[in-house]
């Protein structure tokens, strides 16, 4: 188990593609850490650079006390699960799982015993003689995990390990993986482009954009207090309201509606300043009759989300989303009011 420390980590691919841009990051011992970001932002490159499968252009990678920046992958003591699992199709499950031990020149008997033990822990007992082609997607994923675990590495690197599973299996695998990581206590870096997955599983999340980290925090922090418009629009199962607004007379005017200034914005904004008013649909209280400090408009769309509905109001041409609990849903074309909770609203000046 170990701390992972990245300092000024930079990776430039041929063609001047800057996949990692002077990135600093510290991942704690035993932490379940998610790297979250859109496709192409550098998540896989970061993992591969930590694993030693890519060479850093500049900067350093430390695992525990060791600077591993120039060490070969086999000497870094990491276990990696690739997005497509990368199992050896011609090898049995046992041989796949035992592979890292074979590389370490562990004897056959010992490596088969170790493989059997890890396989048992992951519920793969009956499948040891099969080849990957004879396994379901979920079983293949477990074999890939087992292979990463077999040599008992200090660090797990998981590149979108759940993305090839169907929706239902993915939810089961989420719980399974989280529980396994808890029990093993191994420092784990988990890559995903799925914000719900990151929020559900991680101790902390780094949100990446174009080779940089835009925010690091606990799931609660990045959900409640996204640091910028990019993070605000990337996190959340419903789209965060991000409305062009202006500070005016100690209030903020958004979609033609004067609203109280969020407490922490006071003193940081000047009168007349253009800002973005941000509030999640979760933090608007919907009303079918007039109320103060509310966005008011015509109900444009009502989307059923199960135990709640996402109501979209057309407020002077600006679409404002509010989550409404079971039973309180309006009908389209009715008039509606939605009061943002000021203590949950945020102002952004980064556009
Ligand atoms: P992610 O995993 O977040 O989707 P990647 O790390 O795969 O992102 O890619 C980051 C950027 O680096 C992208 O612009 C991608 O096209 C580029 N890239 C990745 N691998 C290579 C490579 N081997 N050669 C050149 N460019 C690459
Ligand atoms: Mg990737």
What layout of secondary structure does this protein have?
Layout lengths: L3 E10 L3 E11 L4 E5 L6 H9 L6 E6 L2 E2 L10 E4 L11 H11 L4 H14 L15 H14 L4 E5 L7 H18 L2 E6 L2 H7 L2 E6 L2 E6 L1 H6 L4 H6 L6 E8 L2 E4 L2 E4 L13 E6 L4 E4 L7 E10 L3 E8 L2 E8 L9 E6 L5 E3 L3
Parallel strand pairs: 3-8, 3-9, 6-7, 7-8
Antiparallel strand pairs: 1-2, 1-4, 4-5, 9-10, 11-12, 11-14, 12-13, 14-20, 15-19, 16-17, 16-19, 17-18
Helix pairs in contact: 2-3, 2-4, 3-4
This protein binds adenosine-5'-diphosphate and magnesium ion.
Adenosine-5'-diphosphate binds next to strand 2 and helix 1.
Protein name: ABC transporter ATP-binding protein
InterPro entries: AAA+_ATPase, ABC_transporter-like_ATP-bd, ABC_transporter-like_CS, ABC_transpr_MalK/UgpC-like, Mo/tungstate-bd_C_term_dom, NA-bd_OB-fold, OB_MalK-like, P-loop_NTPase
GO molecular function, one term: ATP binding
């Amino acid at each position: 188990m170990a701390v992972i420390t990245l300092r000024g980590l930079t990776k430039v691919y041929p063609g001047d593609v800057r996949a990692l841009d002077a990135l600093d990051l510290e991942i704690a011992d035993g932490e379940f850490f998610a790297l979250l970001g859109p496709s192409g932002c550098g998540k896989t490159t970061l993992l591969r650079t930590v694993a030693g499968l890519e060479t850093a252009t500049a900067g350093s990678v430390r695992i525990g006390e060791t600077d591993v920046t120039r060490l070969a992958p086999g000497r870094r003591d990491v276990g990696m699960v690739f997005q497509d699992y990368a199992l050896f199709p011609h090898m049995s499950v046992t041989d796949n799982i035992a592979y890292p031990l074979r590389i370490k020149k562990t004897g056959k008997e010992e490596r088969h015993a170790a493989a059997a033990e890890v396989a048992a822990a992951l519920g793969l007992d009956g499948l040891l003689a099969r080849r990957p082609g004879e396994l379901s997607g979920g079983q293949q994923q477990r074999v890939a995990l087992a292979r990463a675990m077999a040599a008992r590495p200090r660090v797990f690197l998981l590149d979108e390990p759940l993305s090839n599973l169907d929706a239902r299996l993915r939810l089961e695998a989420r719980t399974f993986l989280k529980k396994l990581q808890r029990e093993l206590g191994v420092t784990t870096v988990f890559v995903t482009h799925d914000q719900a997955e990151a929020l559900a599983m991680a101790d902390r999340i780094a949100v990446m954009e174009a080779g940089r980290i835009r925010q690091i925090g606990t799931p609660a922090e990045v959900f409640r207090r996204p640091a910028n418009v990019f993070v605000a629009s990337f996190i959340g199962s419903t789209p965060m309201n991000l409305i062009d607004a202006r500070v005016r007379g100690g209030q903020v005017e958004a979609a033609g509606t004067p609203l109280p200034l969020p407490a922490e914005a006071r003193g940081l904004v000047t009168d007349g300043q253009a800002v973005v008013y941000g509030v999640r649909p979760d933090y608007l209280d919907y009303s079918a009759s007039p109320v103060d400090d509310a966005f008011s408009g015509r109900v444009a769309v009502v989307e059923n989300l199960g135990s709640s509905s996402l109501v979209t109001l057309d407020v002077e041409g600006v679409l404002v989303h509010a989550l409404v609990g079971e039973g309180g849903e309006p009908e389209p074309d009715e008039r509606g009011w939605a009061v943002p909770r000021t203590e949950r609203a945020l102002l952004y000046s980064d556009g």
